[in-house]
Specification:
- The chain has 344 residues and is of the alpha/beta class.
- It has two domains: 174 residues, Medium-chain alcohol dehydrogenases, catalytic domain (Quinone Oxidoreductase, Chain A, domain 1, Alpha-Beta Complex); 133 residues, NAD(P)-binding Rossmann-like Domain (Rossmann fold).
- The protein is built from eleven helices and 18 strands.
- The strands form four sheets. Strands 3, 5, 6, 9, 10, 17 and 18 form a seven-stranded mixed sheet that branches. A six-stranded parallel sheet has the order 13-12-11-14-15-16, sandwiched between helices. The protein has a three-stranded antiparallel sheet with strand order 2-1-4, with no helix packed on it.
- α5 links the parallel β11 and β12.
- α7 packs parallel to α8.
- The chain starts with a strand and ends with a strand.
- The protein binds nicotinamide-adenine-dinucleotide and zinc ion.
């Protein structure tokens, strides 16, 4: 089969022929229909500092997908040949302390699809059946592939109730844009979206942002205070991974407000903990992965019901062999979500 493989501990990847993987007793073979590119995949391609510390070649990359079950192991009971599936990318163990206490997303033994386990940028993929999610028939393949990052946005937006709240969203990458649509659909009364990329801010307007702001051109703190009668916002959602943006968020969050953090910082962050967190009595949530599988139910309902229309965010589609074109657009910030057609 054809696959995108990271073979060397250096910049780059290869689109090559590799053996089709074999399945174990509780595994499933999936023919991938569509995969989508995450920033993590670009980090692995570019061999960033994070990738050098975390990734061990050789490995087929990718962790977002939709595909069809084509073969099942003898002990598989939950899925059948022909089912259209996606999967939780945190391949959890199911028996550690966290898995048994309702925090599967931080399983002590989890393996990350496309990093610790061969990934989705391939014609076929093998997964254990317990991580599979059977897709709602109303969700097209082009949307089903993005459920994994959409779930990150669901858990960030909905770590607490957001209805009739004022919200600042920092970062309008694909996940910040999903979050904008989710916040709108969930009844946020004012959504301010900040990003230095005007192309992405324009998608944000379509997704429901009431005010879009470019921190290169505007004073975000002043703008938010003016828009909220000097109260600041009830909720700040951080999807930028920028220390500067985080500090803007901390300055404008109203005392007693809520901060949810998904963005990942390249370095240790510098914040005024006493003034901006403790004396403001903030509630802070760190978000990683998705709740298994309650977030998948929410994601599926947002998408299948039409509550959130993600078509403005899915800006580009390429055949798998042209994955580098998608990665270039992502580095240049000239896209929303980029998806890759793998099978027919
Ligand atoms: P992305 O890189 O496409 O988006 C980040 C956006 O932030 C970009 O559009 C960028 O222009 C913007 N930005 C940069 N500086 C800014 C500033 N000062 N103010 C406002 N915006 C600024 O990433 P994505 O795929 O949308 O993911 C969002 C973040 O979530 C990333 O940091 C990613 O690493 C992280 N992430 C975390 C998890 C997790 O489990 N915690 C999972 C997936 C992604
Ligand atoms: Zn576990």
């Amino acid at each position: 089969m054809k696959a995108v493989v990271k073979r060397k501990s250096a910049k780059g990847m290869e689109f090559v022929e590799v053996p089709t993987p074999k399945i174990g007793l509780r595994d499933v073979l999936i023919k991938v229909s569509i995969a989508s590119i995450c920033g993590t995949d670009v980090h692995i391609y570019d061999w960033s500092r994070w990738a050098q510390q975390r990734f061990i070649p050789p490995r087929i990359i990718g962790h977002e997908f939709v595909g069809i079950v084509t073969k099942i192991g003898e002990e598989v009971t939950r899925v059948k040949i022909g089912n259209r599936v996606s999967a939780e990318s945190h391949l959890y163990c199911g028996h550690c302390y966290q898995c048994q206490n309702g925090s599967i997303e931080v399983c002590q033994n989890f393996k990350l699809l496309g990093v610790d386990h061969d990934g989705t940028f391939a014609e076929f993929l093998v997964l254990p059946e317990h991580v599979l999610w059977k897709n709602d028939p109303n969700i097209p393949d082009e949307w089903a592939t993005i459920q994994e990052p959409f779930g990150n946005a669901v858990d960030t937006v909905l770590s607490e109730d957001i209805s009739a709240k004022t919200v600042l969203i920092l970062g309008a990458g694909p996940i910040g844009l999903f979050a904008t649509g989710i916040a709108k659909a969930s009844g946020a009364s004012l959504i301010i979206l900040s990003d230095p990329n005007d192309y992405r801010l324009n998608i944000g307007k379509i997704m429901g942002a009431d005010i879009t702001a470019n921190p290169k051109k505007q004073d975000i703190v002043k703008l938010v205070l003016e828009a909220t009668k000097n109260n600041g916002v009830d909720v700040v959602l951080e999807f930028s991974g920028s220390n500067q943006a985080l500090n803007q968020g901390l300055k404008v969050i109203t005392p007693g407000g809520r901060l949810s953090l998904l963005g990942i910082y390249e370095r240790r962050v510098n914040i005024d903990f006493n003034k901006d967190v403790i004396f403001k009595k903030l509630r802070i949530y760190g978000i990683t992965g998705r709740k298994v599988f309650s977030t998948w139910y929410k994601t599926s309902r947002f998408l299948s019901s039409g509550l959130v229309d993600v078509s403005p965010i899915i800006t580009h589609q390429f055949p798998l062999k042209d994955y580098e074109k998608g990665m270039k657009l992502m580095r240049d910030g000239k896209c929303g979500k980029v998806i890759l057609t793998v099978g027919e």
